[in-house]
Amino acid sequence: MQQPEASEVQLSDQPNALIACKVAEDVFNEHHFKEQFEALFREFDPGASFQFFKSFRRVRINFTDVLAAAEARVKLHKSDFNGKEMRLYFAQSIHIGSSRLEPPKPDKQFLISPPASPPVGWEQSQDATPGINYDLLRAVSKLGPGEQYELHTGTTNTPSVIVHVCEDDSSEGEEETEGSKSTRPKIIQTRRPEFIPSVKQ
Length: 201
Hints:
Elements: H1 6-13, E1 17-21, H2 26-29, H3 31-42, E2 49-53, E3 58-62, H4 66-76, E4 79-81, E5 84-90, H5 134-142, E6 148-152, E7 161-164, H6 172-175
Antiparallel strand pairs: 1-3, 1-5, 2-3, 4-5, 6-7
């Protein structure tokens, strides 16, 4: 059995159409330049057809024979036409299995919104009752302004917790007299510790 030559295999894989790039604008505007352009390629294939794309300055040339397309590309690539260098490239054909655009396969489906009804066996959790220390509330209610109540006695390892009852600001206006000001405790800011830079010798 005779095997096909490498050149025959390569030609059969090539498309039968060329794309002419950077075509002179006169080809799209002037009829006689258009006829001259088509005549260049009809020398290789009299049945060649043309598709002109003026916005891209490109022309698609469809040949009836793969060999004619390859021969035209070899001889006319980077050739001069009407003062412009013409470049030719093989048109890549795209094979689509179906004429319609099919939706993607539902490999992964994510729920965007929660379901309309809860799942079977779901029960709403009850909020826990807040813990109220009535002893603390009773002790604080008995305190007057300026008094304090020790919640937790301090030890050698833990500090003591003391509640201070603030004075009522609403009675300040009644206690103030003309020429006098209400005495408020002055807030003493915590002193910043002095920083002594260490000198490395």
